[in-house]
Amino acid sequence: MVKVNRLDHAISVGKWARCEIRRYIGQATAPYHRTLGTAMTELSNPPDAGPSRGGLSAGVAAADDAIMLLDDERRLVGWSREAETLFGYRPDEVSGRPADAILADADTGVGVFADGRRRGRTPDIRSVRHRDGHRVDVAVDCRRLSDGASGVTWLVRAMPARELRERAVDRAVTDGLYHQSPVLLTIYETDGRIRWFNHAVEAQFGVRVEECAGKSQKSLLPEGTLLYDEGREVQDVEEIIRRVARTGEPVIDMRYRSVTPLEPLREHVWTASYFVLNDEEGVPVGVCETGVDISERYVAQQRLALLSRAGSSIGGTLDMRRTAGELGDLVVPEFADAVVVDLFAAVLNGQEPPVPANGRKAGSELCEVARNARAAAVGDIAAAALDAVGPRCLADGATVSDPASGALVVPMESRGVAMGVVAFVRSAPRDPFDAEEVALAEELASRTAVCVDNARRYAREHATALTLQQDLLPRALPRPAGVELAHRYLPAAGPVGVGGDWYDVIPLSGARVGFVVGDVAGHGMNAAATMGRLRTTVAALAALDLAPEELLARLDDLVVQAGAVRTADEAEDQAFGVTCLYSIYDPVSRRCVMARAGHPPPVLVAPGGRAELLDLPAGPPLGLGGLPFESAEVEVPEDAVLALYTDGLVESRDRDIEAGIRTLCEAVSRPGRDPLEHLCDRVTAALLPRPPEDDAALLLIRMHALAEDQVSTWDIPADPGEVGRARSLVGERLERWEVDEGASFTVELAVSELVTNAIRYGHPPIRLRLIRERGLIVEVSDGGHTSPHLRRAAMEDEGGRGLFLVAQLTQRWGTRYTPTGKTIWTELSLEPHELTPLAFGL
Question: Which residues does residue 278 pair with via DSSP β-bridges, in sequence order?
């Protein structure tokens, strides 16, 4: 590195000449003063030194050179202190002596002028004897002065030979820094004013140092230049220079972004560093700035960073329109001034993208889904470019450049099929897209297309799963007597997809009603299909009139068996880990029996509005096998509301299930008798203000008891003669209920057959019950556990036709078992047009 004191001397060579001549030959007599002035001038501007650059001289004269003055006879008349130090002679010892006597060669004794050659500007390297006799290798430069009238004709400079080599290197470094260095070098005064800069600065900015010396740094750069320090924009670079000069701490890697006067349409980026320049005493004399044009590297880094951000910025959701918009948000305004994205209508609908046919797209209706522009006019240009060259881009399957509009139209392809097309537009003064930027645009379009295709597939699968789930869920719940119903099902929003939550209402015998709610783990088609399978199974088991704990036990056995026959290649059955709650409400007794398999417990709201969480045995989730289920029986007050739900209603990422259940209880705890639909809306508003993260199901049941005059019960003795009395009792009650004769005959016939079978094949006690709701229910109970069988009697058989007649005359019939026996039941419609005619040939 060039020593700072030598640079400073080179910059101030005129001042050096004046000071050093007076110091070196201060003892000279007055007649020599005029000649010394001439010597000063020639030292300051040697003929072969060339023009100076901003005060940086090409000469290598320095203050520590040995200076000697000779008269016309080449006798010494001036001897500097540096000469005394170099050769060991005092001025009085050499004054008037021939120069050749002092500067004689140590080996040959030949003096500096003895050979008679004319001395030029290149110093001679010779070995000279020191006063004490040791050898001194010096470089000697003899220069004849142009004005020798005062008696001083020659100026001799001498320096150690090694120092000459060092100065030559210094001069080569100085010249290299100015003429050849690709690094931009600028030297500032400590107050921020420009002192000097090299040829690289001149070439890039088209200015000369003479034009900018003494001015601020802003004189080099056009308006609008941005300067960043550690990523923060800086307004005053002079303050940074003054801070470096004041503290001595360098500033590294500041970034400039600007155009240059020579290239007003191309933006450059430079990295600059600043460090202080001190003199020999450590006093700051300036600040040096080194700059490197990193435009190409910066652009490459920006492109790489853009691709990196694309991976995290595009496709964060499974929404096609939003994904297309994320592309525009990413590239405007850094990469383009406007972006417009068109997708095929079929893609937006979740269908397969159109396939090329004869250079055109089948069903190629394009829809604009995203537009992002710095100005509306530029966005219109992008849209017009899509209309103009978009069809050719899609037909060729290749990028098309439209120079007229500055647009780049790129197909958005995934799996070799176009999802749509995107236009990138740049407006003046920005450069058109180069080859590398075209490749970048194609990569961005391709990544976006993959995300759009994923979103399209999700939309299709989600729609299919949602349709399947809606088909598997009850379209309209039955409206059995004794209960009012309201329900809500909210499928999961976002990428989790449709889940497997379900609910059902199952009419049972004896005016009872079964309620079920369940939750299949997971989402998607498999979860929906598993839900449908379990819902069907529960309905089939409920038709057997099983108790809740027995139904869950059999359902658990079926799930375990299905898992046991699964092959190694099959995925685990999603029925494993399913939670379920099943309850039966009897409006005659106002009692509700419930059991659950790992499901959240229900909430019961009393008629006054107070809600409580029912304490039911939890039971294990389905599929574990071998663990028992327990039920609990609750007497339900008239007009009470039972709330059944899945965990998606009460649990989310920011709320645990306990807090959700408390919120549910607060939402349903309301004095007065609100309609159940309003109550459903209040619950979903309180618990699901946003689209749910998981499927959520809610079933509200308001329970009523049947009036006393709707139920009649008789104990029947186990005597065949009591069959007639039973028919009479039923006839009287039907007459009181104003049932027409045709229906009464059918009911009496069914009662006669069922009571007869109970007396003949069952065990006491025998009980007959009639329930009047929308139709009529006949129940005959006995203490036996033998199930009756329906059979067709042969012509020669004397019996076996009774149960067959009952099945033909009634709408439904069946058997349910109780802890004390069994009950044969049948349901009949009281509408005359729904009665089955007696056409049995009897």
Answer: 284
Residue 587 CB coordination number (10 Å) = 25
Q: State the amino acid at position 308 in one-letter form.
A: S
DSSP 682-707: HHHHHH-SS--SS-EEEEEEEE-PPP
For the whole model, what pTM was predicted?
0.56
Cα-Cα-Cα-Cα dihedral of 206, 212, 213, 217, to 10°?
-110
Residue 76 burial (CB count, 10 A): 24
Whether pLDDT at 124 is above 60: yes
Q: Quick check: 129 and 143 in contact, CB under 8 A?
A: no
| Distance, CA of 708 to CA of 787 (rounded, Å) | 30
Provide the pLDDT confidence category of residue 472 given band limits of 50, 70 and 90. Answer: low
Q: Strand runs (DSSP E) across 660-775, as ranges?
A: 696-703, 711-716, 766-772
User: pLDDT tens for residues 544-603?
Assistant: 899 999 999 999 998 888 766 554 445 555 667 789 999 999 999 999 999 999 999 999
From its phi and psi, is residue 50 left (phi > 0), alpha (psi between -120 and 50) or beta? left
Q: Quick: pLDDT tens for 793-830.
A: 444 444 456 677 777 778 888 888 888 889 988 988 87
Which residues, in sequence order, are CB contacts of 19 under 8 Å at separation 6+? Answer: none
- Residue 497: its pLDDT value, please? 56
pLDDT digits (tens, 9 = 90+) for 764-783: 999 999 999 888 999 999 98
Are 265 and 432 in contact by the 8 Å Cβ rule? The answer is no
Rounded to whole angstroms, how far apart are CA atoms 370 and 345?
14
Q: What pLDDT was estimated at residue 30?
A: 37
429 preceded by a cis bond (ω within 30 of 0): yes
What value does the mean pLDDT take over residues 827-841? Answer: 56
Q: Which two tokens stand for residue 51?
A: 């023009």
- For 24, residues 6+ apart whose C-beta sits below 8 A from its C-beta are 67, 78, 80, 81, 82
Give the C-alpha separation, 529 to 535, whole Å. Answer: 10
Residue 284 to residue 304: CA distance in whole angstroms = 42
Q: Where on the phi/psi map is residue 203: left (φ > 0), alpha (ψ -120 to 50), or beta?
A: alpha
User: Bridge-partner residues for 595, per DSSP?
Assistant: 582, 631
Whats the size of the chain, residue-wise? Answer: 842
Contact between 217 and 194 under an 8 Å Cβ cutoff? The reply is yes
- Tokens read off for 691: 């689209």
Residues 6 or more apart whose CB falls under 8 angstroms from that of 815 comprise 545, 787, 788, 822, 823, 824, 825
CA–CA distance, 713 with 722 (Å, rounded to integer): 15
Contact 452, 319 (CB under 8 A): no
Query: Quick one: pLDDT band at residue 11, thresholds 50, 70, 90?
Result: very low
Q: Please state whether the peptide bond connecting residue 432 to the residue before it is cis, i.e. omega within 30 degrees of 0.
A: no
Region class of 646: left (phi > 0), else alpha (psi between -120 and 50), else beta:
beta
DSSP string, 351-365: PPPPPEETTEETT--
pLDDT, mean over the chain: 81
